[in-house]
Amino acid sequence: MMPLSTAAILLYTSPIWIMLMSVLFFREKLNRTKLIALALAFAGCIFVSGISGGGLTITGLLLGLGSGIGYGLYSILGTIALRKYSPYSVTTYTFLFAAAGSWFVCNPADMISKFAAADHPAGIALFGCLTGLVTAVIPFLAYTLGLRTVEASKAGILATIEPMVATLVGIAVFSEPLTLLSGLGMIMILAAVILLNRKQHTEKH
Predict the structure, then answer these.
(1) More confident residue, 55 or 105
(2) Where are the domains of the chain?
(3) Which of 22, 58, 124, 148 has the smallest CB count inside 10 Å?
(4) What contacts 57, CB < 8 A, 6 or more positions away?
(5) E strands along 9-150, which residues?
(6) If we measure between CA atoms, which residue out of 47, 63, 46 comes closest to residue 1?
(7) How far is the C-alpha of 161 from the C-alpha of 13, rounded, in Å?
(8) What percent of the chain has pLDDT over 90?
């Protein structure tokens, strides 16, 4: 419904929603450092993803913002769940429900037929499991573990390092060009991360 860069930018409105919900539900303090870091991180995501507003529709805009809110809600609901359950339990149930939901959204019959018609179905199944483990389960478990000691709003901003890493992988692995805007965006995201960590270090001392 919209360019990939626009969809990515709308997804990374999640730190904004996390910060607003954290103030509302957890009474987190909204200080100048967090606001500056949030602005730097979001602007960095825009530069890294590419500035594009072409092809944007109302439906696409609402779905994109919905993805940002849904992504942000994991931090909020995860923080609440961690008050009673371990990070491993939270992550396990998260992926069980996500798997069940994905089963209804995707086309199971088509997926099974493609696996069955493949030359090496066991190898593809193993590759799928490893992909899910490395790109989803481990990162979300690490994020959930971090939520035990880091405020949800800070965790949301720190997670914006993801598009920066994706850009670096694209450059290193797929020989994608490094543009001035994407370079500037990565610097802004790093600045946001450093700013938050510097503030946290100062508070500890």
Answers:
(1) 105
(2) 1-82+151-205, 86-146
(3) 58
(4) 1, 2
(5) none
(6) 63
(7) 13
(8) 40
- 54 by Cβ neighbours in 10 Å (0-12 / 13-18 / 19+) ranks as exposed
Please name the residues in contact with 156: beta carbons below 8 A apart, sequence gap of 6 or more.
14, 15, 18, 19, 72, 75
CA–CA distances in Å: residue 194 to residues 21, 26, 41, 60, 72: 23, 24, 11, 33, 21
DSSP state, 161? H
Which is nearest to 3 in space by CA: 48, 68, 53? 53
Count how many residues are written for the chain. Answer: 205
Is residue 88 exposed (0-12), middle (13-18) or buried (19+ Cβ within 10 Å)? exposed
Burial letters 92-130, b for 16+ CB under 10 A, else e = eebbeeeeeeeeeeeeeeeeeeeeeeeeeeeeeeeeeee
pLDDT, mean of residues 37-51: 87
What pLDDT is recorded for position 141? 95
pLDDT of 205 strictly over 60 = no
What letter represents residue 117's amino acid?
Answer: A
Element at 174 (helix H, strand E): helix 161-174
